[in-house]
Amino acid sequence: MKSRAILLCVLMILAMSAITAYYYPLLPERMPVHWNFAGQVDGYGPRWHVWVIGPVMMGGFLLLGLVLPWLSPKKFELEASGATYGYMISVPVAVMACVELFALSNALGYKLDMSRAPMLLVFAVLILLGNPMGKVRRNFFMGIRTPWTLASERVWNATHRLAGKLMVASGLLGMLALWLGAPHWALLVLTIAWAPLVAGYSLLLYKRLPQ
After folding, report:
1. Could you read off the pLDDT of 133-188 as tens digits, one per residue?
2. Cα maximum dimension of the chain
3. Domain boundaries defined on the chain
4. Cα separation of 132 and 9, whole Å?
5. What would you report as the CA-atom Rg of the chain, rounded to the nearest whole angstrom?
6. Using CA atoms, how far apart are residues 176 and 190, in angstroms rounded to an integer?
7. What angle do CA 40, 44, 47 make, to 5 degrees?
Protein backbone atom coordinates (compact mmCIF):
# COMPACT_ATOMS: atom_id res chain seq x y z
CA MET A 1 0.00 0.00 0.00
CA LYS A 2 1.12 3.55 -0.69
CA SER A 3 2.00 5.58 2.39
CA ARG A 4 -0.79 8.07 1.67
CA ALA A 5 -3.43 5.33 1.77
CA ILE A 6 -1.99 3.94 5.02
CA LEU A 7 -1.98 7.41 6.57
CA LEU A 8 -5.58 8.01 5.49
CA CYS A 9 -6.70 4.72 7.04
CA VAL A 10 -4.82 5.40 10.27
CA LEU A 11 -6.37 8.87 10.53
CA MET A 12 -9.87 7.44 10.03
CA ILE A 13 -9.23 4.81 12.71
CA LEU A 14 -7.93 7.42 15.15
CA ALA A 15 -10.88 9.70 14.45
CA MET A 16 -13.44 6.95 15.04
CA SER A 17 -11.58 5.82 18.17
CA ALA A 18 -11.84 9.36 19.55
CA ILE A 19 -15.54 9.62 18.66
CA THR A 20 -16.26 6.21 20.19
CA ALA A 21 -14.40 7.04 23.40
CA TYR A 22 -16.23 10.38 23.71
CA TYR A 23 -19.74 8.99 23.28
CA TYR A 24 -19.22 5.60 24.92
CA PRO A 25 -20.30 6.70 28.45
CA LEU A 26 -23.55 8.07 26.99
CA LEU A 27 -24.54 4.80 25.31
CA PRO A 28 -27.09 2.43 26.88
CA GLU A 29 -25.76 -0.87 28.19
CA ARG A 30 -27.61 -2.68 25.41
CA MET A 31 -28.07 -0.93 22.09
CA PRO A 32 -29.41 -1.71 18.61
CA VAL A 33 -26.81 -3.40 16.42
CA HIS A 34 -28.90 -4.83 13.55
CA TRP A 35 -31.91 -3.74 11.50
CA ASN A 36 -34.13 -5.58 9.00
CA PHE A 37 -35.05 -4.37 5.52
CA ALA A 38 -37.99 -2.43 6.96
CA GLY A 39 -35.61 -0.44 9.14
CA GLN A 40 -36.81 -2.11 12.33
CA VAL A 41 -34.38 -3.19 15.03
CA ASP A 42 -34.07 -6.98 15.12
CA GLY A 43 -30.88 -7.34 17.11
CA TYR A 44 -29.38 -5.84 20.28
CA GLY A 45 -25.91 -6.15 21.76
CA PRO A 46 -23.72 -4.73 24.52
CA ARG A 47 -22.39 -1.25 23.93
CA TRP A 48 -18.79 -2.46 23.57
CA HIS A 49 -19.85 -3.74 20.15
CA VAL A 50 -19.32 -0.21 18.81
CA TRP A 51 -15.59 -0.70 19.30
CA VAL A 52 -15.72 -3.86 17.19
CA ILE A 53 -17.94 -2.35 14.48
CA GLY A 54 -15.70 0.69 14.19
CA PRO A 55 -12.02 0.82 15.17
CA VAL A 56 -11.44 -2.95 15.40
CA MET A 57 -12.99 -3.76 12.01
CA MET A 58 -11.34 -0.72 10.44
CA GLY A 59 -7.97 -1.83 11.78
CA GLY A 60 -8.65 -5.34 10.51
CA PHE A 61 -9.17 -4.10 6.96
CA LEU A 62 -5.99 -2.04 7.15
CA LEU A 63 -4.03 -5.03 8.43
CA LEU A 64 -5.47 -7.17 5.65
CA GLY A 65 -4.41 -4.55 3.13
CA LEU A 66 -0.86 -4.69 4.44
CA VAL A 67 -0.68 -8.50 4.44
CA LEU A 68 -2.25 -9.36 1.08
CA PRO A 69 0.63 -8.01 -1.08
CA TRP A 70 3.00 -10.33 0.78
CA LEU A 71 0.70 -13.28 0.03
CA SER A 72 0.37 -12.49 -3.68
CA PRO A 73 2.16 -14.95 -5.99
CA LYS A 74 4.46 -13.91 -8.83
CA LYS A 75 2.78 -12.32 -11.86
CA PHE A 76 -0.32 -11.64 -9.77
CA GLU A 77 1.13 -8.97 -7.49
CA LEU A 78 -1.27 -6.47 -5.98
CA GLU A 79 1.43 -3.83 -6.25
CA ALA A 80 0.86 -3.84 -10.02
CA SER A 81 -2.39 -1.94 -9.40
CA GLY A 82 -0.41 0.98 -7.98
CA ALA A 83 -2.29 3.57 -5.94
CA THR A 84 -5.59 1.90 -6.85
CA TYR A 85 -4.89 -0.88 -4.36
CA GLY A 86 -4.55 1.53 -1.45
CA TYR A 87 -7.73 3.27 -2.54
CA MET A 88 -9.61 -0.04 -2.63
CA ILE A 89 -8.54 -0.81 0.94
CA SER A 90 -9.44 2.68 2.15
CA VAL A 91 -13.06 2.33 0.99
CA PRO A 92 -14.06 -0.55 3.35
CA VAL A 93 -12.26 1.23 6.20
CA ALA A 94 -14.43 4.28 5.53
CA VAL A 95 -17.54 2.10 5.19
CA MET A 96 -17.07 0.62 8.66
CA ALA A 97 -16.71 4.14 10.03
CA CYS A 98 -20.08 5.00 8.48
CA VAL A 99 -21.67 1.83 9.89
CA GLU A 100 -20.50 2.74 13.37
CA LEU A 101 -21.83 6.28 12.96
CA PHE A 102 -25.22 4.81 12.03
CA ALA A 103 -25.19 2.68 15.20
CA LEU A 104 -24.04 5.55 17.43
CA SER A 105 -26.64 7.94 16.03
CA ASN A 106 -29.50 5.54 16.69
CA ALA A 107 -28.26 4.63 20.16
CA LEU A 108 -27.98 8.31 21.10
CA GLY A 109 -31.52 9.06 19.94
CA TYR A 110 -30.81 10.56 16.52
CA LYS A 111 -33.10 8.27 14.55
CA LEU A 112 -31.95 7.57 11.02
CA ASP A 113 -34.13 5.87 8.45
CA MET A 114 -32.39 2.50 8.63
CA SER A 115 -34.51 1.16 5.79
CA ARG A 116 -32.79 3.63 3.45
CA ALA A 117 -29.51 4.85 4.93
CA PRO A 118 -27.65 1.50 4.57
CA MET A 119 -28.80 1.19 0.95
CA LEU A 120 -27.53 4.69 0.24
CA LEU A 121 -24.16 3.61 1.62
CA VAL A 122 -24.19 0.47 -0.57
CA PHE A 123 -24.84 2.48 -3.73
CA ALA A 124 -22.13 4.98 -2.78
CA VAL A 125 -19.68 2.09 -2.37
CA LEU A 126 -20.59 0.76 -5.83
CA ILE A 127 -19.71 4.14 -7.30
CA LEU A 128 -16.51 4.50 -5.29
CA LEU A 129 -15.26 1.00 -6.13
CA GLY A 130 -16.51 0.99 -9.70
CA ASN A 131 -14.79 4.20 -10.73
CA PRO A 132 -11.19 2.85 -10.54
CA MET A 133 -12.07 -0.78 -11.32
CA GLY A 134 -10.50 -0.64 -14.76
CA LYS A 135 -7.11 0.09 -13.17
CA VAL A 136 -7.05 -3.09 -11.08
CA ARG A 137 -4.46 -5.52 -12.42
CA ARG A 138 -4.78 -9.30 -12.37
CA ASN A 139 -4.53 -10.79 -8.88
CA PHE A 140 -6.13 -13.42 -6.65
CA PHE A 141 -7.61 -11.17 -3.96
CA MET A 142 -9.25 -8.10 -5.47
CA GLY A 143 -11.54 -7.52 -8.43
CA ILE A 144 -13.66 -9.79 -10.65
CA ARG A 145 -11.96 -13.14 -10.09
CA THR A 146 -13.67 -15.61 -12.41
CA PRO A 147 -11.78 -18.59 -13.88
CA TRP A 148 -11.67 -16.75 -17.21
CA THR A 149 -10.35 -13.42 -15.95
CA LEU A 150 -7.62 -15.21 -13.99
CA ALA A 151 -6.68 -17.28 -17.04
CA SER A 152 -6.26 -14.32 -19.41
CA GLU A 153 -4.94 -10.83 -18.78
CA ARG A 154 -6.84 -9.57 -21.82
CA VAL A 155 -10.12 -10.91 -20.45
CA TRP A 156 -9.30 -9.52 -17.00
CA ASN A 157 -8.72 -5.99 -18.31
CA ALA A 158 -11.79 -5.93 -20.57
CA THR A 159 -14.02 -7.41 -17.87
CA HIS A 160 -12.91 -4.86 -15.30
CA ARG A 161 -13.50 -1.95 -17.64
CA LEU A 162 -17.06 -3.16 -18.15
CA ALA A 163 -17.52 -3.91 -14.44
CA GLY A 164 -16.48 -0.39 -13.51
CA LYS A 165 -19.04 1.16 -15.83
CA LEU A 166 -21.83 -1.14 -14.67
CA MET A 167 -21.03 -0.61 -10.98
CA VAL A 168 -21.09 3.17 -11.31
CA ALA A 169 -24.30 3.00 -13.33
CA SER A 170 -25.88 0.68 -10.73
CA GLY A 171 -24.86 3.04 -7.94
CA LEU A 172 -26.31 6.10 -9.66
CA LEU A 173 -29.53 4.31 -10.66
CA GLY A 174 -29.81 2.94 -7.12
CA MET A 175 -29.57 6.41 -5.60
CA LEU A 176 -32.22 7.64 -8.01
CA ALA A 177 -34.46 4.68 -7.19
CA LEU A 178 -33.92 5.30 -3.48
CA TRP A 179 -34.93 8.94 -3.89
CA LEU A 180 -38.04 7.90 -5.82
CA GLY A 181 -39.04 5.48 -3.06
CA ALA A 182 -38.53 2.24 -5.00
CA PRO A 183 -39.39 -1.03 -3.20
CA HIS A 184 -36.62 -2.99 -1.49
CA TRP A 185 -36.63 -5.80 -4.07
CA ALA A 186 -35.86 -3.27 -6.82
CA LEU A 187 -33.02 -1.78 -4.79
CA LEU A 188 -31.61 -5.26 -4.15
CA VAL A 189 -31.71 -6.04 -7.89
CA LEU A 190 -29.76 -2.87 -8.63
CA THR A 191 -27.07 -3.80 -6.11
CA ILE A 192 -26.33 -7.24 -7.60
CA ALA A 193 -27.60 -7.32 -11.22
CA TRP A 194 -24.26 -6.15 -12.61
CA ALA A 195 -22.35 -9.14 -11.17
CA PRO A 196 -23.81 -11.99 -13.29
CA LEU A 197 -23.60 -9.77 -16.37
CA VAL A 198 -19.89 -9.22 -15.79
CA ALA A 199 -19.24 -12.92 -15.07
CA GLY A 200 -21.07 -13.94 -18.24
CA TYR A 201 -19.16 -11.36 -20.26
CA SER A 202 -15.83 -12.73 -19.01
CA LEU A 203 -16.83 -16.25 -20.13
CA LEU A 204 -17.96 -15.13 -23.59
CA LEU A 205 -14.86 -13.03 -24.10
CA TYR A 206 -12.60 -15.91 -23.07
CA LYS A 207 -14.33 -18.31 -25.47
CA ARG A 208 -13.75 -15.85 -28.31
CA LEU A 209 -10.00 -15.76 -27.76
CA PRO A 210 -7.86 -17.55 -30.36
CA GLN A 211 -7.19 -21.09 -29.13
Report:
1. 999 999 999 999 999 999 999 999 999 999 999 999 999 999 999 999 999 899 99
2. 65
3. 1-113, 116-211
4. 18
5. 19
6. 11
7. 130
